[in-house]
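From the pipeline queue, job 12 of 40. The input is one protein chain; the requested action is below.

Action: predict structure.
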Amino acid sequence: MARSVIKSTGIYVPGQAIDNLMLMKLTGIEFDAAKHVAKLGIKSRHIARLSGLQESSADFAEKAARAALARAQVQPENVGLFVVATDTPEYISPATGIMLQGRLQGGESESRAFDVGASCASFVTALDMVARLQVSDSSLRYALVVGIYNMPAYIRDGDAFGWSIFADGAGAVLLERIEDNEDAQQKGLRSGYLEGVFRADGTQWDYVGVYAGGTKKPVTRELLDQGKYGLELLQRLPGDRNVKLWPPLVRRLLEKAGVPQTGIAHYFFTQINRSVIAQVMEILGEPMDKTTTVMDKYGYTGSACIPMALHEALVNGRVRTGDLVVLVASGAGLAVGASLIKL
């Protein structure tokens, strides 16, 4: 039986870290930095736009992917599938995943490339899709899934909400298709992607997003003059949304996989609010040392935050080979997903 296993990870963030005080100086916005840290946990971030770097989504994806390939000592030509998970693509078309393939392989090849867009749940959604596809296709030995975020490119001047939270970054995961031999199956040495559960509610599309630039609302001079472009907060998100969503989703995932909660070594959640993560862990009856938070270093990096947190935990030894881990992500729209992986 085949399985899809995490071979390596890699991350990329542009420029030097920008702390809260420097952010206010660079953007001219004001917010309570102490309260921001206490509630959200965000102390600093990396933003290409504020660092004078001419880098955007495809650059982030390429650098994170190259880091993952280098760690695994795998050549780009051996990758058969390139998927970029994001709601901040390089262009509306062509897909950023196609551009990533071109940058890494340098031309036409027998490979697949596309994007997955499910707001900030894009990475967990893409990981589920790619792992299942890889298991079913014996030709897909290696596949890259790269979560990227470049929301600061869409933030309007003076937007304190946008600037104080969102940041740039990318996290890449290289998946390898492993064909088990009989001995490995008998000894229970199976690692890899195990299960996923998802929820969606498209009636909640009008909370926060980038609404201009598509077919419904093309960018016009009138919209620009009115300031109705870029990141727009149309309604305040309910503060307890993820507190209510995540614990039942985790329990449903474990039920579906037939795994007891006592077997879970670590949890990774969307990295937008540390206090929410603390509440969720309390509801689950789990200590905070069984989760990893990286918003203190990287701010909120949307579709990139889950693979970035996973990379940090692997590098720092917080999770190890053989650990069962849960990934939980929420995205506007509404899209929510959870995945179970044995490292």
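Job complete. The chain has a mean pLDDT of 95.
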